[in-house]
Predict the structure.
Amino acid sequence: MLRGTLFGGTVAIGLPMLDAMMPRRSSAQDGAAPKRIVFWFTANGTRQDVWSPPASMDLSGHPMHASLAPFSQKLLFLDGVDQDVAYDSIGDGHQTGMACLLTNAEILPGDLFCEGSCDGATPLYVGWGGGQSVDQYLADEIAKDVVTKFRSLEFGVQVRSSSVWSRMSYTGPDQPVPHREDPNQNFNDLFGDLDTDPFELALIRKRRRSVLDAVMADHEAFNKTLGSEDKQMLDKHLQSIRDLETRLDAAGVLGEACQEPTVVLPGSSYQQNDQYPVTGRAQMDMLVMALACDMTRVASIQWSRSVSNVQHNWVPLRLGEGHHDLSHYDDNTSDAQADLLEINKWYSEQFAYMLGLMDGIQEGDNTLLDNSVVVWVNELGKGNSHARRDIPFMLAGGAQGYFNTGRHIDFGGESHGKLLVSLTHAMDKPVSTFGVPQYSQGPLSGLT
Amino acid sequence: MGLQHTRRGRLVALIGSVFICGCSGIIGSGGSEAVDDAVAKELCVVDTPIRRLTRFEYNNTVRDLLGDNSNPADVLPPEEEVAGFNNQAGALTTSDLLVEQYLKVAESVSARAIGNMDALMEGCDPASQGSDACALSFIERWGRRAYRRPLEQEEVDRLQDVFDWALTDPDLGTFEDGIQILIEVMLQSPSFIYRPEYGSDTPVEGDVVPFTSWEMATKLSYMLWNTMPDDELFQAAENDVLLTGEEIAAQAARMLEDDRAKDTIRNFHKQWLLLTQLDSLTKDTSVYPAYNAGLRPLWEEEIQTFIEDVILRGDGSLETLLTADYSFMNEELANFYGDDVLDPVTGTELQRVQLDPTRRAGFLTSAALMATHANLNQSSPVFRGKFVREQLMCNTLPLPPNDLVIEPPELDPNKTTKEQFEEIGADPSCASCHSLMNPIGFIFEHYDGVGQWRDQQNGKDIDAVGEVVQTEDIDGTYDGAIELARALAGSTQVQECVSSQWFRFAYNRSVTPVDTCSIEQINERFAASNFNIRELLVALTQTNAFLYRRAVDVGQGGAQ
């Protein structure tokens, strides 16, 4: 196991002592466990013909979701929810599917990413996503109530690149949020503190505060010399430093379940294709512990990216091609369809693993899962048509009973913007519309 | 605060020495914005965006600044990839995560740095000369290298305050602590992380300004070396002799002789030739028993060593890059290429080898490219054609239309790959695009899915004939990659594609309509040198797009 070694000193001490030495303002003082929201992304659509649960919600024999059977009463399967805004937006199927997914906003015009028909005659380029994503909206709102160690945590599993195809979270239009992709680094960033002598920790914080003060003074002078576009970017940089300083003292709630997690880390090979399962597992382990420690209330885990071409060599494959390549075969190519089922079944097993971790953490009368809503999202409904209709949305956990779970609902063509509105209500930060109003008139009915 | 330095009247020298293309005849006199716009357009000059160091540049910079070879910036979020490169100024965004990691990287780098105080102090002994004096000299001396310019007095004052705090803090207090904190702060300064270019405050025309020598030293070093300036560049900046095209060209030529140019050459080709995809390559070893994952780094090293040799030690020509009959291999690699290698090779070191000129041509037929642009278990005429179209000819091919169900035919093990893909190409819904790619890919059919030569497939002779259509100057039928490589090397479309790729990479931005005369100038010089890449790089330091910018408009509440 890798242990935090910041500044060398690593005196292991008991958690109660840490707890006593670092009292933090938090919801624990209010007596109730906080609500959390987690977005879980997988790519390239699904096997829509298989995806839905049976009417009984008994998943034990389900070809894709059997591993979710223990949680079936904590799940909500949503059929018939479409990314309508993606059909208005510029951009190709995957670009819009990704950039509109959590924003419900059209992609910005720009000259960054080739949409497709980009040859000399009719060049078509697009920019970044055009609005704040719902996870970032919630992070902003929650930050007004409580300072957590991280405003939000965006975990990636081999996302690798940064483009409009690979970003679903935006702090605002044109402002994509990158992922934490290196589990080794994550371990230090998240849990290094738990391992550090509290006296030393206090020194580190004091030192960082002074260093950041000096850096900020430098930035302020520097930014005044810039032209407006450069200044805009550097001001955002400066704002991030201010935010970082604000969060230095937020150590999280050291609840009973909060401890340094035991994680199998993939080492420097975390980006290699065959390490995908190990990397993903490590990221899930740490994400759940970060929630248990109340390091943040808003998190996401993105498996690869839209157009994921991960080679899922660890499941039985007939064609053995990358995920995206497989997703392009027609519905009658049985080998490809079999492979796609195996891939999505594997993702369902990973989902079940994380839900199991969350459900195993008791917080008062509830579990962490009960206190959370985990939202499984996908940029497409179906890979070979690039359909952004009937996206396989699944909710897990009820956000402390807000959602009436254990059901399957077919909305028959509602806009996904309404789902985003529902999520703001579930998290007690309600809005009436989110992103493009036309496609987000209030929450989805029947979820609560 | 003004960061401009060494402003002196050099208007005359500039106008006399710098080639201004399509000179406007408009003599600017602080006229209206519209006049300034017209002048800048006429002179092919644009605003220069501020650039953030990429992870690669950050790593190289701390290597040269502190001898730190640990690649500490690898933990930063990946750069945004735009127009094929990860160093495009306008696309690089900032984020909370980036800033958080800058803090941690600065902590680890500074902690390592004070392990060698002698190197940092350069002879100043705090015990005898006083810690304040040594701290001040460190701030001015090291700060100038870290910020790549002399520090303003206000900056020195602020850093002295930081040092004083560290020295008086009960939990810190040693001289080393103070130096460590200074490094930590300076590594997080925008003056280190970013490369601002303000230009001199004396316009040559309209609001068009040249750069200061300090700025030019930094421009040259990051463009040609992907790292900070060396002592000679700093000295030239100090002497203010990086002002004329001749002075700048002379430095560029010197810099291309330096080992650091390798970093840039490799970085460019890794991205241009999509070698980044090698890392995630997977092959079916039941189809390709000769393949193992250990070949991937060897393939990359082969193509990079070859390119580096041609550009930095060889004749430098694009033609040689595309058509040479030699490469660099060790024993394992030579065994992989088999009969194509004409020299005996032993040992693990790469060495120059003669290749069968009827089978191999430059980087084009290297295993690195052939294996990357192939499928798990077969070659891919589509991917290979797409590679030639997009990377070498600067075409951008349309993606399959929205909502189109793509139905590739079942593959038949009794047919050759070419026969199979000809069926795809024949489908009318695919033909319009695939006729641009597949026939080019067919020309590479002698190379299987891992890049090994083959004369037969499934018991049938390989047919490597393909027709190239809709190009500017190489339409025709070709039999095999050797013929195609020669045609590509002589193609104006390919030559101009190469220069535009280098333009984007070197200038960290896309080509705009205003750049037309700079592009023409680069292409002329490239052609005049018989398409020598070294000369192309020097030519990139001679354009108005490189030598000038429009003055920074700080707007309201701006600089003092």
